[in-house]
Write a structure and sequence with these properties.
The protein has about 120 residues and is α+β, with helices and mostly antiparallel strands. The protein has two helices and six strands. The longest helix has 19 residues.
Length: about 120
């Protein structure tokens, strides 16, 4: 009987000590969620990449003729909209406060300074 009590005590004591080591304000569920968030994939930005079209949420600041786009003859350097950035087109939801001449925008002879 004494051996059985010691065996049970040997199993229970580490559990009690381990539980006592966790601070009262600790939230195990939040700790678990934070580890899940760290391993979640992060969306990669398309800023400064070249594309045959301009996806929603981006604008562009340079265009060039390209043979890689099939029937779409032009390739655009994508930019993430940011206040003060000079771009060739105004993305949805943004405005501009200045323009300047450029030859980087193809048939559009102006850059626009974004305001959002």
């Amino acid at each position: 009987m004494l051996r059985r009590f010691i065996a049970v005590l040997a199993m229970v004591v580490p559990l009690i000590i381990g539980a006592a080591a966790i601070p009262a304000h600790a939230n195990p569920a939040a700790q678990k969620n934070s580890s899940v968030q760290e391993s979640a994939p992060v969306a990669q930005s398309l800023d400064l990449t070249w594309s045959c079209s301009v996806p929603s949420g981006y604008t562009w600041d340079w265009v060039q003729v390209s043979n890689t786009c099939g029937s779409l003859r032009y390739q655009y350097r994508l930019r993430t909209p940011v206040n003060g950035r000079w771009v060739c087109s105004i993305p949805l939801g943004w405005g501009y406060d200045a323009i300047q001449p450029t030859n980087m925008c193809g048939s559009n002879p102006y850059y626009y300074r974004l305001v959002g």
